[in-house]
């Protein structure tokens, strides 16, 4: 098999750059020191103890810790290629002025820098066609030396041989013999770049810029002379998702370093080091670092199967970034390193006492927290709290060896500046095992860890399977990466938004079937420097805040606010109906041309509809196919939708015209007809002359045609029909009243409604805006940018964007099958999203999981995280508020803890009185 080494080198560059940007939080040094720690975490855990006998050389660099560490690596290495590699890097850390150190090293390792014999292409020279090419090949020392004498279009056999040998030569640079053998086998057998890279990553160590194997690929890829054609880098640059985070940097230096790093094809080693040293550990850059963490390791519910960090197991309703075997092993090896008496940071070494004797369980909790990375559902932060940091360093820090002028408090100010519960992770819950140790798992996480192959996304299977068929709880779908080194994937066929050029400029691309971004269009740039003046105060772009009872956000100098009516006095409250524009709570529904049913004409006018833009009656009662708007060879199918783009520009058709096919495809997308018969897909249903009841498999509990009223004020023939439209049940029966919309009004609506019963032991329910009945759920109230949605609609051939489009995208980010997503457009033109337990009645742990999912989505929206904003149309979501229905179990945990303390206090008091009587 012949291989183009350029493909491998390009792929190595892509993988390594991603790896280099994902270095941990604690116990991690600069690039060369990182490699040493990873060695200690892997097959060479005894690296510290296996120093060569000539390690005294390194003691001469005791005043330069970086130099000493590199020196120790050189003398401890058993691989000549590794030593040569370190020698090339060593001058960056050990200046040539350190004559004694260099003299000692050179005498300890004689001959290490001698030139290798021949070059990798020497054995290929006889394949040359031209005599002058063959002669140049035999005299050359690199491929560049033959570029003039050997014409690439004629000497294909020679060039292919050299490329293959270059790659195989790089295999010899691997330290591990097993890796060397695997490398050669992979290069000779695999055909595509992704196959080679994925197999190399599995067969050898995790790729790093310091690894001689991967460095060899990189160095070879740079050895290209002008005139040699190279494939242009992907339009996304290094990582389009991480590039989005650069605008969140607080300092101009970090913003510039970040932009330089992720917008180009490849940053050099110095650029990575500069960014890591100045920004990666800087608490002031928390917004940018959290954003980068969302791209690299998004917060996911659940943690299990750890063997070292066992206190982190069985936590199905908590969020973690890196609950996996590798992080578990990393925590164990961090502990081994710290046992040597020092925690090495890029900006200082923190001396500690013997952690095997001084609060070892707390040190273990710290090591595990920094590797497993529990994250707060509101801030998604993963740093430990300042009080925990101060406590452990006060008790176990070696104060006599602290850096000059530093105390436990000052060190922790650098490492963990916050004590807010929403910004940090308290350690106390990880000092003991989970209280759910022996509980039956009622919350599952089929996509965590990811069971899918490389370059595939995992999605929860909510469709189910045919009886008798093998059924997995997840689907795997291929995706596109947002850049050369990106691990961030988007699904085939979706539109994505990513930064382009200057700050505030974006482009919209499609993820093509080939796995690359296609059909990119530049959108109008946004001036991020424009601010808003509100109440005499300046608000920056992207900043969200409250104005009276409304939530607002500054978007490039334009103030965007919700439309809630805010009573300002007790008299206002007495007169306020709780409905928009203080409309009467009369249910005389009208259907807006946007597809939304409003309870009255007053409310429709209040949201901006003119009289000719709505008509009386429920939208669901309109026969949209009469008269038939389709051509003779097409069938008119009702397609109810609520549009959130401008009706004047894009319309909002409530039907679709489908061809009258003679034959239907056998693709399975089940639908249920009005007689409760299931069909393979819509085509087969209409071919058999049936009427659609709802999409999805037929459910036995929907056989009876009992109508329900959805939270959107629309009547549906049954529960399944509502669920199919992503609408949750408000109450049973036809819609007949106006829901509660504000807690400011004193009027009592929905008096005639009998709400579904919620057991008192389940939760403290919440009532969604505009609904009559409460439920156990997480409720999001989202403000969106209509102008941005219009821009997206233009990019999709003037197709209107709907509430369903938003719900389907959000649904992909809910990882727990026991929770599902419903939603609607509110009467005040917010998007309301409900994350609701599927089971009825739900278990407390399932409600907690749905609450966590709701808080996570809320945080991702408010922080403008690439996890959401890289996807069209989610990038039009501006800001969000969340309300959760707390479970009695979670409340009890807090109350019971307080009661236990009271009992303990009383017991001690009684003992004191008894013994002193």
Written overview of the protein:
The strands form 11 sheets. A 4-stranded antiparallel β-sheet has the order 28-29-27-30. Strands 5-6-7 form a 3-stranded antiparallel β-sheet, with no helix packed on it. The protein has a 3-stranded antiparallel β-sheet with strand order 8-9-10. Helices cover 33% and strands 14% of the residues. Helix 1 runs parallel beside helix 8, helix 2 (31-41) crosses helix 16 and helix 16 crosses helix 17 (360-372). It is of the alpha+beta class and 917 residues long.
Task: Write the topology of this structure.
Layout: H1 5-20, H2 31-41, H3 56-59, H4 65-76, H5 80-89, H6 99-108, H7 131-139, H8 156-171, H9 177-189, H10 193-203, H11 212-222, H12 240-243, H13 252-263, H14 269-280, H15 286-296, E1 300-301, E2 319-320, H16 325-338, E3 342-344, E4 349-351, H17 360-372, H18 386-396, H19 408-415, E5 456-460, E6 474-481, E7 489-491, E8 495-499, E9 506-511, E10 517-522, E11 532-534, E12 537-539, E13 544-547, E14 550-555, E15 558-561, H20 570-575, E16 590-592, E17 597-598, H21 601-606, E18 614-616, E19 634-638, H22 647-650, E20 655-659, E21 671-673, E22 678-679, H23 682-687, E23 692-695, E24 708-710, E25 715-716, H24 719-724, E26 729-732, E27 778-784, H25 786-795, H26 803-811, E28 819-825, E29 831-837, H27 844-862, H28 866-869, E30 877-884, H29 888-915
Antiparallel strand pairs: 1-2, 3-4, 5-6, 6-7, 8-9, 9-10, 11-12, 13-14, 14-15, 16-17, 16-18, 19-20, 21-22, 21-23, 24-25, 24-26, 27-29, 27-30, 28-29
Helix pairs in contact: 1-8, 1-10, 1-11, 2-16, 4-5, 8-9, 8-11, 9-10, 13-14, 16-17, 18-19
Organism: Xenopus tropicalis (Western clawed frog)
InterPro entries: CC4_RECK, EGF1_RECK, EGF2_RECK_dom, FnI_RECK, FZ_RECK, Kazal_dom, Kazal_dom_sf, RECK
Keywords: Cell membrane, Disulfide bond, Glycoprotein, GPI-anchor, Lipoprotein, Membrane, Protease inhibitor, Repeat, Serine protease inhibitor, Signal, Wnt signaling pathway
